[in-house]
Write a structure and sequence with these properties.
heterodimer; A: 13 helices; B: alpha/beta; Rossmann fold; Alpha-Beta Plaits; 6-stranded mixed beta sheet; about 35% helix; disordered N terminus; disordered C terminus; binds adenosine-5'-triphosphate; binds magnesium ion
Chain lengths: ~240, ~325
């Protein structure tokens, strides 16, 4: 199962690194992350990364890594199936002796790989900071875990949207809108009565990301992101197999 | 349907592909309506039919890309819709217009497909090399597929279909968009492949099927309208075409001539071919029914009516004639 998915993922990665997509994602991430880290370092003089993982903007940093992921993930995933359908290669792929799951998992791993690469490169910042002061690694590890899980959920949503259309722009818009809704629904939660508010709050990405940013690794938060990921991939597979029904 | 006509019954031959009452609806349009045929091991079979006849749709059902609305497709005895993976292991497929990843190098693409096909690493290099040599790709291995000409891209599509050494090749218009030299080369390649593989190919080029195929299946409007050997579709078996030329005289009325000749035994239909252009001669095309030779009867009728025969000539029916007869609707024929 994984071997063939990995063959597909490898091709996805190669194709992304042959085009500007992967580099744009990585550079944007590095620049934003760097500017946040060093602003915190120089303005507050504290060796910490917390702001890097916070979902809600502050005066110190308006564009935050989780928000960046919300924009970049759809850009990475939009091509995955839409472009294969447009160019006809999907027909070639689905007539190879592989299942739709191989395809979906392969595409997922490929796009997720780019996000992981972008996140991994920003590790240069906590490493730098830790040489300047006593960095508490707990919240950093929690924060990275949160971002990774969030990225996985976004990539799964993006892959799913890409199976719905043969137009990558449409795929981008669909998955971006879904991402933004999941992100901003937390703001609505504050305005709602307590009972309803907590339900909506649970659905919101920000509630869970905040826990990770504080260094709290709660299985419920992990479960939340894994559920979205699994759901997105499941729907992607369903949508694919329906198309050649 | 005449799928059980001559030439398709083989003693001891095993069927490799069976289409049984295949139907495919796209929303409200029915692209394939009841297609049945059998392809035996070792055959090279040509799918022929006008645009939109349902050739590609039928192939997509054989390869497991589309699930039939009704009926079933069997490949090596496996129901494709029930176990697509097992069926897909047996076949190599070149989809129409050879879609491929244009940003990949030829060699990388072939490795990619071989890996997905589960070709083991001990034979992979050898298989890729053999496929490239067979398809004439050795000079372009390091090029991006997007930079290749249409003909070379088509060859990559063929090579890709050979990597797992399949028993069955399904090729959707393997020579479309190629120049005449490339067509000859690809045709030779298909003939070569046909020596150890079963091949189903579709095309619009009639001489192509005659040159490469053991059997022709003509599809029109989603249905099989002929399923026979090239000889049976073009030779005596298809009924001869007789050209009759007579001198135009005042008492020769074309309508009467048509009527008289049309009533002769062994005559299927009579067409006046020079509607008013040549006033000296009346040219008629007489279509004989299967295995009939009405030349003598035509001569006799001419003598009896005092018509002066200038020519009486029997032609073999070309595949074009058969194709047109089977795939044109009445309205089209008169308009043409
Ligand atoms: N995806 C689709 N959605 C709706 N209709 C389709 C689709 N694909 C094909 N059709 C219709 O089904 C019919 C058969 O198409 P098909 O592609 O099988 O024909 P074909 O014989 O391969 O034609 P050609 O010689 O032009 O390749 C056509 O009327 C076509 O318009
Ligand atoms: Mg076609």
């Amino acid at each position: 199962m994984l071997r063939k998915s990995w063959v597909i993922a490898r091709r996805e990665l190669q194709s992304a690194f042959d085009s500007p997509v992967a580099y744009i994602v990585i550079v944007t991430f590095l620049l934003t992350a760097g500017s946040i880290c060093f602003r915190v370092l120089f303005l507050t003089g504290r060796a910490e990364m917390r702001l890097f993982f916070e979902p809600m903007p502050t005066p110190l940093a308006v564009l935050l890594p989780p928000m960046l992921l919300t924009i970049l993930a759809p850009a990475v995933t939009m091509r995955s199936f839409a472009e294969e359908r447009r160019s006809g290669t999907l027909e070639l792929m689905t007539t190879l002796p592989i299942t739709d799951w191989h395809l979906v998992i392969g595409k997922f791993l490929g796009s997720f790989g780019i996000m992981v690469a972008a996140l991994a490169l920003t590790l240069a910042y906590p490493i730098t900071i830790s040489t300047l002061g006593a960095l508490d690694w707990g919240p950093v590890i929690g924060g990275y875990l949160g971002l990774l899980l969030y990225a996985a959920a976004l990539v799964a949503i993006g892959i799913m949207c890409s199976t719905f259309t043969n137009n990558q722009i449409v795929a981008f818009i669909m998955s971006f809108v879904l991402g933004v809704v999941l992100y901003t629904i937390g703001i609505a939660a504050v305005l709602l009565p307590a009972g309803l508010g907590s339900i909506v709050g649970y659905v919101s990405v920000t509630t869970h990301l905040e826990n990770f940013a504080r260094g709290l690794i709660d299985t419920r938060d992990v479960f939340y992101f894994l559920t979205i990921t699994a759901f997105g991939l499941l729907l992607a597979e369903r949508s694919l197999s329906r198309q050649h029904a | 349907m005449n799928s059980s006509s001559t030439g398709t019954v083989r003693d001891g031959a095993t069927p490799l592909v069976e289409a049984r009452g295949l139907i495919k609806d796209y929303g409200r349009t029915q692209a394939v309506r009841d297609v049945s045929f059998t392809v035996y091991r070792g055959e090279v079979v040509g799918f022929l039919g006008p645009n939109g006849a349902g050739k590609s749709t039928t192939m997509k059902m054989l390869t497991g890309y589309l699930r039939p609305t009704a009926g079933k497709a069997l490949v090596a005895g496996i129901n494709v819709a029930e176990d697509p993976i097992a069926a897909q292991r047996v076949l190599g497929y070149l989809p129409e217009s050879a879609p491929m990843y244009l940003d990949m190098m030829v060699i990388d693409f072939l490795h990619f497909i071989a890996d997905l096909r589960g070709v083991t690493s001990d034979v992979k290099r050898g298989r890729i090399r053999a496929a490239c040599e067979r398809c004439g790709l050795m000079d372009v291995l390091g090029k991006d597929i997007g930079q290749l000409s249409k003909g070379y891209r088509q060859r990559v599509g063929l090579a890709q279909a050979l990597l797992h050494d399949p028993d069955l090749l399904i090729l959707d218009e393997p020579t479309s968009g190629l120049d005449p030299n490339q067509i000859v080369e690809i045709r030779a390649l298909i003939k070569d492949l046909g020596r150890d593989k079963t091949v189903i190919l579709s095309t619009h080029i009639l001489p192509e099927v005659q040159a490469t195929c053991d059997r022709i299946i003509i599809i029109n409007d989603g249905q099989v309208v002929a399923d026979d050997t090239p000889d049976a579709l073009t030779g005596e078996g298809a009924g001869a075409m007789i050209r009759v030329v007579m001198r135009t005289e005042s008492f020769v009325d074309p309508a009467t001539v048509r009527h008289v000749l049309g009533g002769l035994p062994g005559v299927l239909r009579v067409d006046v071919q020079n509607a008013g252009s040549n006033t000296q001669e009346l040219i008629l095309a007489v279509r004989a029914s299967k295995n009939a030779d009405p030349r003598e009867a035509i001569f006799g009728a001419a003598v009896a009516n005092h018509w002066v025969l200038l020519e009486l000539h029997r032609d073999r029916v070309s595949l074009e004639d058969t194709f047109q007869r089977l795939t044109q609707r009445e309205g089209d024929r008169h308009a043409a």
